[in-house]
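Q: Sequence in, structure out?
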Amino acid sequence: MAEQVLIQFRADKTLKQEVADIYEQLGMDLPTAFRMFMKKSKQVRGLLFDVLPETDVREDFRTAFNALREEASDTPEMPLEEINAEISAAQ
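A: Exactly. Output:
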């Protein structure tokens, strides 16, 4: 048997009890459920569910993009020859 370690962490008391009740109805205790979670995480090499940000990332991106677009609208256009000259100078 592999060497065992003690894992401790803090959780909300009510949440812990509600989750323990769920696993009890499935016929297992909380430590067994956590061991199963860890083994499956190892098997899939990640979380067992999607993690989504709390904010709408697309909306944040859209807002930032539109702000940059607005800022760039005041920039005068450069002729192609001037762009190529700057590229050549940078090389």
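The chain is about 60% helix and 0% strand.
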